[in-house]
Amino acid sequence: MNEGKEEARPPRCSGCGALLQTEDPGRTGYVPEAALSREPVICQRCFRIKNYNEASTVSLDQDEFLRLLSGIGEKDALVIHIVDLFDFEGSLISGLQRFVGSNPVILAVNKCDLLPKVTNWNRLRNWVQQRAKELGLRTAEIILCSAKRNQGFDRLLDTVSALRGSRDVYVVGATNVGKSTLINRLISDYSDLEQELTVSRYPGTTLGTVSIPLDDGHFIVDTPGIVYPWRYSELVDRRDLDAVMPSQPLKPASYQLNEGQTLFFGALGRFDFVQGPHQSFTCHISGSLKIHRTKLERADSLYAEHRGGLLTPPQGEAAAKLPEWQRHEFRIPKGSRSDVFISGLGWIKVNSQEGAVVAVHVPKGIKVLVRPSLI
């Protein structure tokens, strides 16, 4: 009999309340085994905030993240939603509006440094505003920024000051969008962390957030990054991330194609020009990813024979682990200015307004869509 005995409960972080684990530094509650003997025990993310004034990125899957968001609409909060311009539709939390209610949302669009210097920034801002609206998100302000170049952050901080009032600030976003850089900048500008890090646990939310005290008694609430499985950044082997995610400004590559021609993006995806007059297509993808042109009639055999060799990345076991490819066909109407967007890989701009039928082959589950041209 076990009468009088209590079942041992998994230890929790004394800072954020997350269940502690020692296996995965990228998930909530991670703590090195050597630190488990300390009192009190706090996870690595809380430790870095407390001791180094620096947040690190952890992640949650989609269902866990949505449960975490469920209580924000009941609070008086300012929400900063940070997205990746290179993967805009893939990193935007399209269902965010129903969780935040009437609370104001600042949309911080990161990685703007990847676009060519000749970009019309007013047009870009209007494009972001329209796409966010079409995807169901109302914004109080849109800030174009670059965490890497430290551009736009002063304007973001000014906007936070203007809209925050007596609210707590929630920062939300997908993985790999630059959220930790934004959090660290907010910490350095707003929070006095010479005092002991304290954490406020809010009713109605999943434990795993970290609440960073501000000087006026309110908090910056750092939420884990949401994992969206339809993005290449969540699918490819970590060794191939550098090839997929650009770190330098994009150098658009234009191809004059006849119908019946194909472009391979390494062995990660392919673009078929199925039908239409001779025309130009411009690829906006990482410069580290090689593009190979061939005839559509040879595309299947070329992929079967040269995946992991001529067509790379990925290669070796990483290539074998990718899901089976799925074909997506689109009819681009005459007179439209359109991009064929592939989440996490980039986009192909259809330059002609003569119309075209195109197809995209990518691993099953990757988000592919047609949208109004970004540039």
Automatic annotation (TrEMBL):
Coiled coil: none annotated. Pfam families: MMR_HSR1 (PF01926), YqeH-like_C (PF21516). InterPro entries: G_CP_dom, GTP-bd, GTP-bd_ribosome_bgen_YqeH, Mito_lipid_metab_GTPase, NOA1/YqeH-like_C, P-loop_NTPase. Residues 66-229 form the CP-type G domain. One of its GO terms (molecular function) is GTP binding. It comes from the Bacteria. Gene3D superfamilies: P-loop containing nucleotide triphosphate hydrolases (3.40.50.300). NCBIfam families: GTPase_YqeH (TIGR03597). This is Ribosome biogenesis GTPase YqeH. It comes from Paenibacillus spiritus. The lineage of its organism: Bacteria, Bacillati, Bacillota, Bacilli, Bacillales.
